[in-house]
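Running low. Got one?
___
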Amino acid sequence: MLTLAVENHFEDWRAKARALLLACVSPDEVIWEEPGQSGLFPTGGSLPPPSKTQTPRVTREFLSLAETISYHNSHQKWALLYRTLWRLTLGGETHLLKITTDPDILNLLRMRKEISRDIHKMHAFVRFRKVNDTPETNREQFVAWFETEHRIVRLTSAFFRKRFTGMDWSILTPDECMHWDGQKIHFTDGVDKTQA
């Protein structure tokens, strides 16, 4: 049994999933964990050597769905994504994404819907309060606190940058914070509500 920790972002999972596919490691042989999560089996170890020379083709539709799901807070997301990827490629179920009654696909679609709902709530309910004026730049500074259900801060960045370009702002959440200085957005670690 191989235990892998994913650093909670899509590219890390994708690289590990590709290596597992090349080594023909079935989903039943892998335990996926989040950083800091400790299960029965020790995390780590090296990925097995490839037994294939070419990575099976994956549709853009699946990659887009997988990237969206990577922002979900479920600890089961990485295992679900790898099982679906295996079924789509080495499992030979190339039309799996079209079977909306399949339990794995139902779960993925539910998770995508939950992320979409969380993004909508953030767009609608973030409320800024003014905290400072900067006379030398003629810009006002604002801060907002919002508790997301999923790790969606980066998914909302384009919306807030476009909508509130004329002011400097920070949106603080427990998972990650987003800051706009009039030029670019940068991200910092999440904070407690008291820091808002």
